[in-house]
Specification:
heterodimer, A: alpha/beta, Ubiquitin-like (UB roll), de novo design (two linked rop proteins), B: alpha+beta, Alpha-Beta Plaits, N-terminal domain of TfIIb, 4 domains, five-stranded mixed beta sheet, 16 helices, elongated, binds flavin mononucleotide, binds iron/sulfur cluster
């Protein structure tokens, strides 16, 4: 099932070094690229159907098309390498194993959108990744792939790595821009969208690392070659991080559209220790959980996930076996999003803290059914009332656990009322 | 009138000004959209989420009104069930960690959170878990005291210090419900407008050390006034109260919106100048060091005037236009010299281009308009030539040291009409208590040639007289404010269409030729 498009060089020793990378085709598309017109590059990417790999799956070429023309302002590219969503571990492989693929992608994107300044925003905890990436960028400058004249062409491009300071919310594209500007990383309210007014008020394109790293293949082999993989609406391949209770957790490159259960069985070795499957988190912690019976006909693509009221997300699949305590899982989940809320908008700032205290109370077996119902209601009261969707990233999955595993919450609160009764008697 | 557009609010068509956000546009026709973080002087931040409104057929169907420009044909939903629910839900979230002790909060009675709870909130609390605890009573400097638990982190105070004073002392530190307003360690607020954050704060999180816990705000009577702290003439609200058996006391000045003059703000010095209205006042008329009824003292003045060969009269640059014309007429009647010498009121380099002006006098432009000589030479010559100086509240101690004053006045008797009992009134032979600017009605011309009027707000137990009345009693032919105002019209043709009490609230911008007249 596995394919090697993005991960072609991952198994090669020292592919992060420019000499090795070049020997295996790095920067080979640039001749072709600069022979094309920027519009044609955008057209080709549109045709490939490449969708953003940061989570929302917005078509990359279409996003680039939103840039206003001739504003007289510089256009910026920001590469989102914040990768902080729990269960997501794909971009880090690109950064360490094949950073030149990313740099080549940046050149392609920059040329297409007419940008001469790229910022790579990388999460602060990625210390190894930042070191390897920066070394690769230095090599690219030295080799003339970055700087005043990219590969000898009349095209200037600078790439700056900007390290985050450990905030998940800075992966949200406008918080990311604020952070690059040196401000507290808080999402901006939209409109205006970054394509119109982004970094320093200038038109800005923000794309995920994997989105950008997919470009060299598309330009080299063409959109049609890319569309050989995946489904009609979800073409191409994806780096899936499979974790949790499987025999062989890890990062696997797969074409989109494969049946999720088959992937868990055949690629990741199935549920570990011969246990039964309880649920699947399909695309990072923020995506609503799937029950085994729901997962029967789910395929790993944007359409199938949406049809099953969940999301493709970041491709971080978490397998839950029968021993998982859903109430404890939900506590962990809320704990994370509460901790990461930037705190600017009321519903998220106050609401997630309230939810956390309620779930802790339930977990201590001190809760009541009212608490469970309140928790469920708060999901509705908070969701989509905020500046960014971090709050929804918490409430959407929490709602799914409350609805699909209600009996587990009920068991906790029944225990609570039983022990309260014992105390009374 | 600006351009207007028509849109619908709850299905009813309303006509609103263009170029405004929904809160301001719809607010101007009397429909309130609840909001905490938005303030017209600070712009929209979009964090409180209280202003979410529905847009029928809109994409998205739910928008923050503060961030949404009013557009023709828009169908705004405010009273739809789902919008009311959102308002109630956001209010609930706003309140879960808020202390529930309004009775001991200084903001009670003028708190947005309290008001919104009454209008939009859910009556009963569903909070059964412990609240977030934060710090209280933090001294932020400049008389600003902060309570982190009452703060709704709307960021108004932070934006004020960043955008208006550009000093940036405040920030919101931490994330999530641990977010709180703070100063940098050891770097307190340090700007001359700090107390505006107390007004801006929609809740009781920012309080004024000067005002907190002195009065429940619902006992305060509010009256419009003009700050006399400098030539800007910021519009203020005078908030005062007469407690049982006590005097009518001013508890605070707060800025009052005037887009032509001061916008929404005022400086701290002006704000705290209310204290001078309360304190150190000259409470009774004096002959020498003896307290006498005002009539007796005025009779004594008349005798002094009759006996004096030459008389010099001095006006304060803080006097109203009415007082100035009255005193000018008095001087003409008595064939006295008239001066407005007051360079001591000017603090060179003190102005900051924001509101504060170098000139600490409120009506120097009035002296110029009336052609009153302000030079030092002519004033000093006049005093030396005269046997009697009548000083209408000009604070000569701003210009002269005590010994200089004694020397200047050694052969001259002094009658002073004074608001305060100070070194100057102590030196006078006759002292007459007069009203301060919060106690009489009058007009002023500010540093931008804007004529503004104000009415008396406070009535003191010692019933100080207006300088205009004293001038009249001493012989000025202009016996009433109406006559004084009529006299003013001779100098300002623009006043022909107005009476003292019909001058527009935002003031009259004097036109080119009148402005020229002023500076002539
Ligand atoms: C709270 C939050 C965190 C996010 N974190 C990331 C992240 O770590 N990496 C990422 O690529 N996108 C992240 N996103 C999505 C970005 O906002 C943005 O949609 C994405 O970077 C766009 O790139 P793409 O179109 O290539 O997917 C996050 C979004 C939210 C709301
Ligand atoms: S939803 Fe949460 S993280 Fe997003 S802007 Fe609001 S407070 Fe910040
Ligand atoms: S102190 Fe007041 S103005 Fe400042 S953020 Fe808190 S609530 Fe808003
Ligand atoms: S700027 Fe001048 S007029 Fe305004 S409040 Fe301060 S002292 Fe008063
Ligand atoms: S007033 Fe609009 S979000 Fe606060």
């Amino acid at each position: 099932m596995e394919v090697k498009i993005l991960s072609a060089k991952f198994k090669l020793k020292n592919a992060n070094k420019i000499t090795v990378a070049k020997k295996h085709g790095a920067y080979a598309t640039l001749g072709k690229l600069f022979a094309m017109k920027p519009e044609d590059v955008i057209e080709e990417v549109k045709k490939s159907g490449l969708r953003g790999r940061g989570g929302a799956g917005f078509p990359a070429g279409v996003k680039w098309g939103f840039l206003p023309k001739n504003t007289g302002k510089p256009i910026y590219l920001a590469v989102n390498s914040d990768e902080s969503e729990p269960a997501t571990f794909k971009d880090r492989y690109i950064l360490v194993k094949d950073p030149h693929m990313l740099i080549e992608g940046i050149i392609i994107c920059s040329y297409a959108i007419g940008s001469h300044e790229t910022y790579i925003y990388i999460r602060g905890e990625y210390t190894t990744q930042v070191r390897v990436l920066q070394a690769a960028i230095d090599e690219a400058y030295a080799a003339g792939y970055l700087g005043d004249s990219v590969a000898g062409h009349d095209f200037k491009l600078n790439v700056t790595v900007h390290r985050g300071a450990g905030a998940y919310v800075c992966g949200e594209e406008t918080a990311l821009l604020e952070s690059i500007e040196g401000k507290k990383g808080q999402p901006r309210s939209k409109p205006p969208f970054p394509a119109v007014a982004g970094l320093y008020g200038c038109p800005t394109i923000i794309n995920n690392v994997q989105s950008i790293a997919s470009l060299p293949f598309i330009i080299d082999k063409g959109a049609d070659a890319y569309k050989v993989y995946g489904t009609e609406k979800s073409p191409g391949t994806h780096l899936f991080g499979i974790s949790g209770h499987v025999e062989k957790p890890g990062m696997y490159e797969l074409p989109l559209g494969l049946p999720i259960l088959e992937v868990i069985d055949k690629v990741a070795g199935g549920v570990w220790k011969g246990r039964k499957l309880k649920g699947i988190i399909p695309g990072g912690s923020s995506t609503p959980v799937l029950l085994p019976e729901e997962a029967q006909d789910v395929t790993l693509d944007y359409e199938s996930m949406a049809a099953h009221k969940t999301m493709f997300g970041s491709g971080g699949i978490v397998v839950l076996d029968e021993t998982v305590d859903i109430v404890a899982l939900v506590k962990n989940l809320i704990d994370f999003y509460h901790h990461e809320s930037c705190g600017q908008c009321t519903p998220c700032r106050e609401g997630l803290g309230w939810m956390l205290k309620i779930i802790k109370k339930i977990l201590r077996r001190e809760g009541s059914m009212d608490d469970v119902l309140l928790l469920r209601e708060l999901c509705d009261n908070i969701e989509m009332k905020t500046v960014c969707v971090l709050s929804a990233a918490c409430t959407m999955p929490v709602r799914s656990y409350l609805d699909k595993f209600r009996h587990e919450f009920e068991a906790y609160v029944q225990d609570a009322s039983a022990s309260a009764q014992v105390k009374q008697e | 009138m600006a351009d207007t557009i028509k849109l619908f609010v709850n299905g009813v068509e309303v006509e609103v000004e263009t170029g405004k956000n929904l809160i301001d546009a719809i607010g101007a026709v009397g429909i309130e959209i609840p909001h905490l973080c938005y303030h017209p002087a600070l712009g929209a931040d979009g964090n409180c989420r209280m202003c979410l409104v529905g847009i029928e057929d809109g994409r998205p169907p739910l928008v923050p009104a503060c961030k949404t420009p009013a557009q023709a044909g828009m169908k705004v939903l405010l009273d739809a069930a789902h919008i009311k629910k959102i308002q109630r839900d956001v209010m609930e979230l706003e309140l879960i960690n808020h202390p529930t002790d309004c009775p001991i909060c200084d903001q009670a009675g003028e708190c947005k959170l309290q008001d919104y709870y009454m209008t939009y909130g859910r009556p009963e609390s569903r909070m059964t878990v412990p609240q977030v605890q934060k710090s209280k009573k933090l001294d932020f400097g400049c008389g600003v005291v902060h309570d982190q638990e009452r703060c709704v982190t709307c960021g108004r105070c932070v934006r004020f210090c960043r955008e208006i004073t550009k000093t940036g002392e405040l920030g919101i530190i931490n994330r999530t419900d641990d977010a709180r307003v703070n100063i940098f360690p050891g770097r307190p607020i340090n700007n001359r407008y700090a107390l505006n954050v107390v007004d801006l704060c929609p809740v009781g999180a920012m309080t004024s050390k000067d005002f907190r816990f002195k009065q429940r705000v619902w006992f305060l009577k509010k009256a419009p006034g003009i700050c006399h702290g400098c030539a800007k003439g910021c519009n203020i609200t005078i908030e005062h109260n007469r407690e049982k058996y006590q005097d009518d006391i001013i508890y605070r000045f707060r800025p009052r919106l005037n887009r032509q003059v001061n916008g929404y703000f005022m400086c701290d010095a002006g704000r705290l100048s209310y204290r001078q209205e309360n304190e150190g006042r000259l409470l009774a008329a004096r002959l020498g060091s003896q307290i006498r009824p005002l009539e007796d003292v005025l009779a004594a003045c008349t005798r002094e005037i009759e006996q004096a060969g030459k008389i010099a009269i001095l006006l304060s640059p803080n006097c109203s236009l009415e007082q100035m014309v009255a005193v000018k007429a008095l001087a003409a009647k008595l064939q006295a010299s008239l001066s407005g010498f007051s360079t001591g009121y000017i603090k060179e380099g003190d102005g900051d281009g924001l509101l504060i002006e170098d000139d600490k006098a409120a009506n120097r432009a009035g002296l110029a308009l009336l052609g009153i000589d302000c030079s030092r030479e002519s004033f000093e010559k006049a005093v030396r030539d005269a046997q009697l100086l009548i000083n209408f509240n000009n604070d000569l101690t701003r210009t002269y040291s005590d010994s200089e004053l004694k020397k200047l006045l050694k052969d001259t008797k002094v009658i002073i009409a004074a608001t305060h009992d100070d070194r100057l009134s102590a030196m006078a032979d006759i002292a007459i208590p007069v009203a301060t600017s919060s106690e009489y009605a009058g007009s002023l011309i500010n540093c931008h040639n804007i004529l503004q009027t104000f009415a008396g707000a406070v009535s003191r137990n010692h019933k100080p007289a207006n300088i205009g009345e004293i001038a009249a009693k001493l012989g000025s032919p202009l016996q009433s404010r109406a006559e004084q105002f009529a006299e003013l019209r001779k100098y300002l043709s623009v006043l022909k269409d107005f009476e003292a009490d019909t001058v527009p609230a935002e003031g009259l911008k004097l036109n080119e030729s009148e402005a020229a007249n002023v500076t002539a």
